[in-house]
Amino acid sequence: MQINKIGENLYQIDNNIATVNLTPGIQVYQEKLIEHEDKQLRLWNPRRSKLAASIIRGLHTFPFKKDSKVLYLGASAGTTPSHISDICPDGRIYCVEFSPTMMRDFLDVSSRRENLLAILDDATRPGNYQHLVEKVDVVYSDVAQATQTKLFLDNFKLFAKDDAVGILMIKARSIDVTMKPNDVFRQEKKNLKQGGLKVIEEIKLDPYEKDHIAFVCEKSF
After folding, report:
1. DSSP alpha helices (H): ranges in the chain?
2. What DSSP designation does 126 have?
3. pTM for the whole structure
4. Residue 110 sits in which domain range?
5. Strand pairing partners for 167?
């Protein structure tokens, strides 16, 4: 087994990736735990996490540091947030989720991780939680709906530091099922530019997620 450190609390294990478990002995989604030196690593499944898929597909921009402040839109049951929690043990991850059912599952995860902060609210209305969230280093959005780019822009403008990085996961079929995915991607990239952001990296997530792309952005100034 070949294990190499490739980032902050991030490791490559053969053809897989893993994070250093912030809560040793505790799994989040039945992921495999591996002991390595004085650490325990959690395998990060790219079919359960678009961020993991992006990393395996060659993501170069990795803005997460051990003390990063992160706004996570579309936290769902907490799979990806838990790995960001591993990577940023001294940071804060503000996790917005609209579904009460998903939030119940998420709270099971966040109750064991002090750096995960749960916000039950609508990501299309960032003003609702403006009083709860500080300026952040990273805005990460994975909300599969037609207005996913607009809500990302609205949150980025409100919460991002000047040097912040944004990561937007686009699901083409959630925006327009009648358009070809590549046309949707071009359209949304244009919308990001018109919203004042510069796309510095883009990665299609096949074969892990069909008709998905990750846009990595920063303020264009």
Report:
1. 50-56, 79-87, 100-110, 148-159, 172-175, 181-194
2. G
3. 0.97
4. 45-219
5. 140, 216
Is the predicted pLDDT of residue 111 greater than 90, yes or no?
yes
213 belongs to a structural domain: yes
pLDDT tens, residue by residue, 115-141: 999 999 999 999 999 999 999 999 999
Calculate what percentage of the chain has a pLDDT beyond 90: 98
The CA–CA distances, whole Å, from 141 to 36, 37, 107, 111, 214 equal 31, 34, 19, 22, 10
**pLDDT, tens only, 77-110:** 999 999 999 999 999 999 999 999 999 999 999 9
Cβ pair 133, 140 in contact under 8 A: no
Cα gap 196→76, rounded to integer Å: 28
Distance linking the first and last C-alpha atoms of the chain = 45
Quote the pLDDT of residue 85: 99
Q: Is residue 212 one of the residues assigned to a domain?
A: yes
- 180 lies in some domain: yes
Count of other CB atoms within 10 angstroms of residue 67: 13
Task: Name the pairing type of β-strands 212-219 and 10-13.
Answer: unpaired
Positive or negative torsion for Cα 95, 17, 152, 207: negative
Q: How far apart are CA 21 and CA 179, in angstroms?
A: 41
CATH of the domain at 68: 3.40.50.150
Say which residue the tokens 């959005």 belong to. Answer: 141
9 within a domain of the structure (yes/no):
no
At residue 105, what are phi and psi to the nearest 5 degrees? -65, -40
The number of residues in the chain equals: 221
